[in-house]
Write a structure and sequence with these properties.
The longest helix has 23 residues. This protein has 16 helices and 17 strands. 39% of the residues lie in helices and 26% in strands. The strands form four sheets. Strands 6, 7, 8, 9, 11 and 12 form a six-stranded mixed β-sheet that branches. Strands 2, 3, 4, 5 and 10 form a five-stranded antiparallel β-sheet that branches. It is α+β, with helices and mostly antiparallel strands. Strand 8, helix 1 and strand 9 form a beta-alpha-beta unit. The protein has three domains: 140 residues, Sandwich (Immunoglobulin-like), CATH 2.60.40; 133 residues, Serine Threonine Protein Phosphatase 5, Tetratricopeptide repeat; 165 residues, 60s Ribosomal Protein L30, Chain: A.
Length: 473
């Protein structure tokens, strides 16, 4: 069993928790948050300016900065101006120290507490950056007198679980053997074993068999290997007579088919069942007959068939007449099965065409070959595995691979449905761990990954390492 691994990348909104309060020469900063929402970063903090004193001819400029190595971005500044400095800028019509966007206050009128808020475009370099606060003290003529810097905290995108999706290659079929089955209700005149094609509904019933045979016989990719017929009679006559009818009528249908198709000797095989008691039981079980339970008990008893049928007729005459009219005709039928093989396909492009037109011809391994020739994660890639599971709805490997395509697309509900039928292989256990991790259930995910890793799934071991990193272990 071969496996294909696909890396699934997930993008989540990053949030940085409030950072610790910091003090920079009498200015206290609290409740700092850096909150990314998509393409933007919001920076919020509470700045306590109550202890800040500024001389009349001086100015103090506080500038938050986001910095990561050589990359830096200055945010809107807070300027606190002594009386003479403040009026100097006002009289001269000059912009304040940091230009437009600065929050500027005259020292005597500054707020004790300032709620700082700004939003800037997010850049990838901000992941892992520090939030700094610069303080610069200025005298007249913009003379820089002092400079300090403090770190308020940092920002990092939250650790995200990135699963490796493991697709499983199904075991190739040596021979692709398939079959089509059905039932035909051929009417015979009383006590006759000769088929009259125009008798009652025989034309329709014979056409059903012919259509089933033709559906595969006329396909160049298909070879019919067997035609199986089994005839049944209803119980109202003696068992020995019904046996002869079942045998004779089945033989008549065999000869009819041989004349139409000229199959080689041995292709058509027959069987018979003199009386279809199982069919009678199913009918009574689904009915509302007054003595339904008692009749079912007689059907299930070990009495001889003729005695059983006579007891029902004698004890429950009204119900017997109803069954004779409404049920018994359907018990005179022939079941048939057409066995055939389909040639193997190895060309991926040919298989991709067949997926769209005649997917029933393909084995699971052929579906896998077609998917492998597509771009992983593409719409066609997913569609092939979805089609495969429709053709093989109870196959564990088909369900596992369909679950994996759902995990790729983030359709966790659909993935859960497929995984319920994916069996207990180590790859299925691993996939259930992936589902749990993407649902945020790390405890359950860890349990699945531990079991899968113990079974030799190396991707499970790497998944455990991811969970460890996310949990700071």
């Amino acid at each position: 069993m071969k496996r294909t691994i696909i890396l699934l990348t997930m993008f989540l909104r990053g949030i940085c928790a409030p950072l610790q309060a910091q003090e920079i020469d009498g200015v206290s900063v609290r409740n700092v948050t850096m909150d990314r929402n998509g393409a933007y970063m919001a920076v919020d903090m509470d700045v306590d300016l109550s202890a800040l004193e500024v001389d009349g001819n001086r100015a103090v400029l506080f500038t938050p900065r986001i910095a990561n190595g050589a990359d830096t971005l200055s945010l809107a500044s807070i300027g606190i101006y002594g009386r003479r400095r403040y009026f100097y800028y006002i009289r001269n019509g000059a912009s304040m120290l940091s230009g437009e966007g600065e929050m500027s206050y005259r020292a005597s009128l500054k707020p004790d507490d300032l709620a700082y808020h700004t939003i800037v475009p997010y850049a990838e370099w901000m992941n892992g950056a520090s939030l700094l606060l610069d303080r610069r003290d200025y005298g007249c003529c913009h003379t820089l007198l002092d400079e300090q810097r403090g770190r308020l905290g940092g920002y990092a995108e939250p650790a995200v679980y990135v699963p490796e999706i493991v697709f499983v290659r199904p075991v190739a079929e040596a021979v692709k053997s398939r079959s089509l089955s059905g039932s035909a209700f051929i009417d015979f005149p009383v006590n006759k074993t000769v088929i009259y094609p125009e008798y009652r509904r025989n034309a329709v019933e014979l056409a059903k068999i012919n259509a089933t045979i033709d559906s595969v016989r006329l396909d160049a990719d298909v070879t019919i290997t067997g035609v199986w017929l089994k005839g049944y009679a209803s119980p109202e006559s003696p068992y020995s007579h019904n046996r002869d009818l079942a045998i004779g009528r089945t033989a008549a249908l065999k000869n009819h088919i041989r004349q139409l198709y000229q199959f080689a000797e041995g292709v058509i095989s027959t069987d018979y069942e003199p009386e279809d008691w199982a069919g009678l039981q199913r009918y009574v079980e689904a009915s509302n007959l007054a003595h339904r339970g008692e009749i079912l008990a007689l059907i299930a008893s070990d009495m001889e068939p003729d005695a059983k049928e006579a007891e029902i007729r004698r004890t429950y005459p009204e119900e017997y007449r109803f069954l004779l009219q409404n049920c018994y005709p359907a018990l005179r039928h022939t079941d048939y099965r057409i066995d055939y093989t389909i040639r193997s396909f190895s060309d991926a492009e040919e298989i991709r065409r067949i997926v769209k037109t005649q997917p029933q011809k393909l084995s699971l391994n052929e579906f896998f070959l077609a998917a492998r020739s597509c771009d992983p994660g593409s719409e066609e890639f997913a569609s092939i595995f979805e089609t495969a599971v429709r053709m093989y709805p109870d196959d564990p490997t088909a369900n596992l691979n369909a679950a994996n395509t759902a995990l790729e697309r983030g359709d966790l509900k659909r993935a859960e449905g497929y995984l319920s039928k994916a069996g207990s292989s180590s790859e299925a256990v691993y996939a259930r761990g992936v589902l749990a991790a993407l649902n945020g259930d790390r405890e359950s995910a860890r349990g699945h990954f531990v079991r899968a890793a113990g079974a030799g799934i190396v991707e499970a071991q790497r998944a455990l390492q991811q969970l460890d990193a996310m949990e700071g272990r």
